[in-house]
Amino acid sequence: MGLSGLVLAGRPYDGRFGPRPRIGWESLVPVGDRPMVHWVVDALLGVEGLASLVVVGPAELVVELSDPRIRVVAPGTGLFDNVRRGLDALEPLDGELLVAAADAPLIRPRHLAAFLARARASGAQLCYPVVRREVCERAFPGVERTWVRLRDGSFTGGNVFLLRGSSARRAAGAGEDLLELRKSPIRLARTVGLWFLLRYLLGRVTLAEVQARFSRVLGVDGRAVVVDDPEIGVDVDKPGDLELAERALRARRDGDGG
Fold first, then answer.
1. Distance (Å, whole) CA 42 – CA 5
2. Euclidean distance between CA atoms 26 and 15, whole angstroms
3. Which of 156, 183, 169 has the alpha carbon at shortest distance from 218?
């Protein structure tokens, strides 16, 4: 069973970082001295054992990404269409699949290796990293994230996840269904359970309860993997994030001696 990678880089640029007339795709917005997707691709290519990598993104990347393991696939009409196109390009899916968003330029190979080690040890079909709020805020004071308040503490989700074999398509389909359910609170409550939803909103649900409930809803054995690397939980979604990422990359460069 080999390890493949999928980078989702197919979101059109919507102007959130200001006017950039020559940039049509968010993944091509520069962070530091290069487009943000390049940082993510390098992180995945640096993971031991990665055999192939599909990038769903703009045609420019065909020229810019020269590693023979990379295949660039044209994006579709939205997130889940892009996921499906990536999965199609990776057929047959009989091993492990590491999926990453293109807007997480602070991730390094060692962060992914640490997550993979914990995910594999869990034995689960779907593993998703979560980072404790205090870990993120200690590393990046002032960072703005969406925090989920549970009985165990407050967490933010990571920008990667690991799927095993046939669970990939099943989880992707269920994830699309859940996204649609957000538009209908009644259907969402019926799916996850009204009592569970109320306890969740009150911060009385544990991390273990959340992963058990969503494993049932998704139809796969899913685990939330608590990781110690806050870089996995930081993405570039707004101007403040871009400034934070550029500061962090400058500090990293200076710390590495240039």
1. 11
2. 9
3. 169
Q: Which of 94-103, 131-140, 158-167, 249-258 has the highest mean pLDDT?
A: 131-140
Amino acid at 76: G
SS3 sequence, the chain?
CCEEEEEECCCECCCCCCCCCCCCEHHHCEECCEEHHHHHHHHHHCCCCEEEEEEECCCHHHHHCCCCCEEEECCCCCHHHHHHHHHHHCCCCCCEEEEEECCCCCCCHHHHHHHHHHHHHHCCCEEEEEEEHHHHHHHCCCCCCCCEEECCEEEEECCEEEEECCHHHHHHHHHHHHHHHCCCHHHHHHHHCHHHHHHHHCCCCCHHHHHHHHHHHHCCCEEEEECCCHHHHCCCCCHHHHHHHHHHHHHHHHHCCC
Tell me the whole-structure pTM to 2 decimals.
0.90
Collect contacts of 205-208 with beta carbons under 8 A, ≥24 apart: 205/150, 205/151, 206/150, 206/151, 206/152, 207/130, 207/150, 207/152, 207/155
Count CB neighbours of 200 within 10 A: 18
Q: Which two tokens stand for residue 222?
A: 């899913």
Q: Answer yes or no: is pLDDT of 25 > 90.
A: yes
Would you kindly state where each structural domain of the chain is located, as residue ranges? 3-255
Q: How confident is the model at residue 64 (pLDDT cuts 50, 70, 90)?
A: confident
Reading the block at residue 77, the tokens are 């009409």
Instruction: Answer whether 61's CB lies under 8 Å from 48's CB.
Output: no
Dist. CA 4–CA 6, nearest whole Å: 7
Domain 3-255 has CATH 1.20.1250.20: no
